[in-house]
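The instructor's notes for this session suggest beginning with a concrete chain rather than abstract definitions. Hand out the sequence below and ask the class to guess, before any prediction is shown, which regions might be ordered.
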Amino acid sequence: MYSIKQASIRSGVSVPLIRAWERRYGLVAPTRTASGYRLYDDQAIATLIRVRELTETGWNASEASRAVLAGEVPVGPVVAATPMHLTDESAHGLQAAMVDRFLKAAEAMDIAATGAALDEMFAQGSFEAIVDDLLMPALIALGEAWADGHVDVAAEHAASAAIHRRLSALYEAAASVGEPRVVVGLPPGSRHELGALAFAVALRRLGVGVLYIGPDVPVASWVHVIAQNRARVAIMSVVQIVDRAPALEVATALREFDAKSVVAVGGANSDWDAAREAGIVVLPGRINEAARVAAQLASGTTPTI
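After discussion, reveal the predicted structure:
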């Protein structure tokens, strides 16, 4: 799903014109987030592209829209974006340039430029296409810049909030089938939630029922939410080494509540001996792959890791 700015970049149709075609001709019908922001799917992008092409050859917008909506003029195939495998020099250069623009905007606390840099990233393809090779590297770079003192705390918070808003919109827009089968959150004391939220988005986009409960969730609350929702799997993000002990406490409490509880962890510091010895599933490092494994856990099948 794409914001209206992303839809404009991908279709070549200006934002005002997208709005006008929606209002006048009902050309596309975007979904909306809880905050009212428009979100467009690949089919909407393809429709916009086709009408733009027709108008460029002399059709007026009204007739072009009518013909496309009536099926008289075929719309090109919707090609799902594939993940960016940054293996060649040009791809690495593109990634580095985008991340650098984002960091410079964050450092300057330029909210508009930060948003534009993020929109540029998200416009490179579907969420699955950019999450591992653009969004997560940008998050890591932001954290490192803050740790090194290059980005002020307030600037880091503002940039993180901009990412959080976009991820939240994607989470709300993603399909979630039935009652939650998976609960995703962070153990008590852990607040670095953007990776966990990105993972929840990826898993929800696979059609898995997901409840995201956010950062710093007490042990008792983990047990309560699993019991309340009868969820099959609990997944925690372990970002820092200090998050490991609280994550083990949550896992122990869940197992005491229900010995059949499936507990998994992901994140930068999720792979440690005590977790595996406790029977906790350690998810792969890349979000797309972690979501695939989590979907297998949610379906009750043995995951392939």
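Then share the key points. Residues 24 and 123 are 26 Å apart (CA to CA). The chain has three domains: 4-69, 89-172, 174-299.
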